[in-house]
Amino acid sequence: MRERYRMLKEDGVKVWCISPVLIATGLGGNQEMSKSLVAEDPAPAGQFVRSVLEGQRDSDMGRVLVRDGGQP
Question: What is the top-level taxon of the source organism (predicted)?
Fold first, then answer.
């Protein structure tokens, strides 16, 4: 991701890595089991991804994003 950011930033391409947390989507086949593993509801994660795509985290391009900031 960081290499893509370095290569594409001069062309105006926005690059992030988004880490929304463990979410209970049912993609693993058992949504209830995911919830028992402290997986969160998917709605807040979807809102987080949407906010990134709408430009609210443009100042964090080239970083791994989590809802409360960026990973070091």
Answer: Eukaryota
* Per-residue model confidence (pLDDT) at position 72: 64
Rounded mean pLDDT for each run of 10 residues along the chain, 72 residues in total: 87 87 73 72 86 92 82 66
- pTM of the prediction? 0.69
* CA dist., res. 47 & res. 64, Å (int): 17
Q: Which domain range does residue 33 map to?
A: 2-70
**How many domains does one find in the chain?**
1
CA–CA dist 65, 28 (Å, integer) = 23
